[in-house]
Structure formats: structure tokens, C-alpha cells
Design a protein that fits this description.
Structural class: alpha+beta
Number of helices: 6
Strand content: 35-45%
Mean pLDDT: 94
Distance between the termini: 34 Å
Number of strands: 15
Largest sheet: 7 strands, mixed
Helix content: 10-25%
Low-confidence stretches: none
Oligomer: single chain
């Protein structure tokens, strides 16, 4: 059995502090996984990786397929193979499904990859708009972000559960992105309700943290982490 690993380029803490320049091509990130999420240079929208293909949810509500040349300041992917699968036949809220996943995987001390496919009663997403320099802290950007909703939509929700210990490396708790079946609606998930579908999850055994060591801004910037946990909670 192949060991499951989470490959992450950049850190959420650096992104929160306003380090939004892209420092790795998406094509390089995709070499390490088939499922995941992230953002693009200048915090330009939301990246959703499904079945090895990356899509960008844009702040105007559109979705485009990426060609791999786009650069990302932050992205996380895994070669997803489910070790738990639960069929849902009656409506479940997002909160209930999250608790179901944690119960199935037996612990909040593990990274867990998540894939939920089916018919959603409703999905509420937001999309970070592209920023220009000088970049603000992410918590300020999040105060003015487009939000979108759809009801009775088929699609796939992907993402990760991060243990509290790793807050700042990623967002502690669940970080989820959604894309619909037609690939025309997608972004960062605020809330959702699943009507019916399949909930798949996988324990992550290893974290591979990749840093942009050749990016002088990342290397030289003194980052203020004092209110990081509160800022992540507000922005997420």
C-alpha cells in the first residue's frame, strides 16, 4: 500500500500576511497530487483540483481550466485514494458531514483528505478577488469578497482537515472548495448541504511542506503572526 502524503507549496500564514506573489507553477504542484485546493498569483480566485485537473473560480463567478503555467503562492494536493466511503441518501448539513468524517477516520490529530460527490441542496461559496501591490493582509481582503450561492447543484467538494497543531501552516479544521458538474460554478466553501451522494475520505500519513526558497520576498519578510489564529478564523 502506497503511503498517502499531502504536498503543500507555501503556507497559509505567509498568505495571511500578504505574501501573495506566485512562487510555483501549478504544473509543478500537480505532479504531486490529483485532489486539492489553493489560490493564484495576487490571490486571484480559488483553485479547485479534481481528478488531476486544476480549475480557477474567478471573482466574477466564472470558472476556467488552468493550463499549468499559472503561478501559485499557496496550494495543497494529494494523490487521493479513499480509505473510507459513506453513501448519503438523506439530506445532511455540512456540519453533520464534517463530524461524520472525523468519526469515520477516528481522530482530530490527523490530516484528512476529503471528497464529497453528489447532489447538493445548496452550496454557499466565496472567491477572493485579485489584489494589486502593495498587498493587504488577507483578513482585510476577506472583508470585500464576492459570494455566490446555488441550489440543487451536482458537483464535487474537495479539501482537507488540518489538526489544530498545524494552524498557520494551513487552516486548522476543514478547508473545502467546490466545483459543479458542468465546471461553471466553484470556489471556497462557506457552507453547504448535501442531498445525496458519496462522502470519501483518506488519512494523510506524511506532510511534504515546500517553501519558495528562491523568492526573496518570502525569505526576507518579517511576518507578524501575533493574531494569526483569529485572522484565519475571520478570513475562512
Amino acid at each position: 500500500m502506497t503511503e498517502s502524503s499531502l504536498y503543500q507549496h507555501g503556507t497559509l500564514g505567509a498568505l495571511m500576511a500578504g505574501l501573495m506573489d506566485g512562487t510555483e507553477k501549478m504544473a509543478e504542484v500537480l505532479k504531486h497530487g490529483t485532489l486539492g485546493l489553493g489560490t493564484l498569483h495576487g490571490l486571484d480566485g480559488e483553485v479547485i483540483v479534481v481528478d488531476g485537473i486544476a480549475y480557477q473560480g474567478r471573482s466574477d463567478g466564472s470558472v476556467v481550466r488552468l493550463n499549468g503555467e499559472e503561478k501559485t503562492p499557496y496550494a495543497a494536493v494529494t494523490d487521493f485514494t479513499a480509505d473510507k466511503s459513506v453513501e448519503i441518501t438523506t439530506p445532511h448539513t455540512g456540519d453533520v458531514l464534517k463530524e461524520t468524517i472525523l468519526a469515520e477516520e477516528a481522530g482530530k490529530n490527523l490530516f484528512i483528505a476529503v471528497k464529497i460527490t453528489g447532489l447538493f441542496k445548496n452550496v454557499h461559496i466565496r472567491i477572493m478577488p485579485k489584489q494589486e501591490k502593495p498587498y493587504k493582509r488577507l483578513v482585510e481582503v476577506s472583508q470585500n469578497q464576492p459570494e455566490f450561492r446555488q441550489e440543487e447543484v451536482e458537483g464535487t467538494l474537495v479539501g482537507f482537515f488540518t489538526p489544530e497543531l498545524f494552524q498557520g501552516v494551513a487552516a486548522a479544521g476543514f478547508h473545502l472548495h467546490f466545483i459543479d458538474k458542468s465546471k461553471t460554478f466553484g470556489g471556497h466553501v462557506i457552507d453547504f448541504e448535501l442531498a445525496n451522494g458519496i462522502v470519501e475520505s483518506s488519512r494523510i500519513e506524511s506532510l511534504v511542506q515546500h517553501f519558495p526558497v528562491n523568492d526573496s520576498t518570502f525569505v526576507d519578510t518579517e511576518i507578524d503572526y501575533a493574531n494569526l489564529a483569529e485572522e484565519i478564523q475571520t478570513a475562512e
